[in-house]
Amino acid sequence: MKTLIVGIGALGGLIAARFRAAGLPVWLATRDTEQADKLRASGLRVTGMGGAVAVQATAIAPLDAYGADDKFELVFLATKAHDAIEAAPRLSLLLGPNATLLPIQNGGVPQMLGERLGSCVLGGLSNLGATMEEPGIYEQRNAGHLLIGELAGGESERTERIRRWVERAVAVRATRNLRGAVWSKLLVNCSVTTIGAIAGGTMREYMASPSGSELFNRTYDEALKTALATGAQPETMLVEPIPPGWRADGIASEERNTWITKVLTAYGDVTPSMLQDIRRGRRTEIEFINGYVVRMARQFGFDAPINAAIVETVHAITSGRLAPNPGLLAQVLQAPTHK
Ligand SMILES: NC(=O)c1ccc[n+]([C@@H]2O[C@H](COP(=O)([O-])OP(=O)(O)OC[C@H]3O[C@@H](n4cnc5c(N)ncnc54)[C@H](OP(=O)(O)O)[C@@H]3O)[C@@H](O)[C@H]2O)c1
Question: Which residues does ligand 1 sit against, CB inside 6 Å?
Answer without folding.
Answer: 6-12, 29-31, 63, 78-81, 83, 87, 104-106, 126, 129-130, 132, 285
